């Protein structure tokens, strides 16, 4: 029998990105708005700052630009910048949070965008938690719903951003946002955890991405899919070893980071990272 070599993985090309982040100076877990949060567990804010700083420096080392928004006392989850805006081709759709504890974050981010020259900024009428549930592929906006974002916010996003939207239904409360169940690796490839989605949404994902990387339960449980890809480098939690192996086989370079302290609030690298697409 002939020994047929496996096809070589395609060459992956990174593109420089621009990210907005917020230092977790006031990070703590003092309320419970998702299954990961437990106010009775101790939180080391200093360690959270160290891990966040290492994440920021990782982006900079990879050649990406990182802008900062000032943290605000009394808003411990403001570090999760991804939840506060969706930016596509310079258009900004702000956020409207479901949890009252986070509602004030939206206005601080709106002011940041205006102060930094963005004039096409729309604040939503429907609840949407921005890149928590909106994932831009470069051609489609994948949009999650089921726990936080109002399904009617998907139509609002399409109207404001002027891009086609594909709705996906989340069904597992542990994976309450799309960004903890799916990561866009490149325009034509995603990784996702099938059990986080409804049967119909799984069929949609199989149709759109027949060659997708399928994450395991262990990948999902360490929030391994809360990752950030620049088209080649994939920054993901250090515990997501199986997922790292799978993306490496597809030609990507996994970049593991320790974000364990911020995971106590249900966040990972992507939650800390709002991408600005000008």
From TrEMBL:
BP GO annotations: L-arginine deiminase pathway
Pfam families on file: DDAH_eukar
Domain of life: Bacteria
Residues annotated as transmembrane: none
GO molecular function: arginine deiminase activity
NCBIfam families from the UniProt entry: DiMArgaseDdahMtb
Name of this chain's protein: Amidinotransferase
Organism this protein belongs to: Saccharothrix coeruleofusca
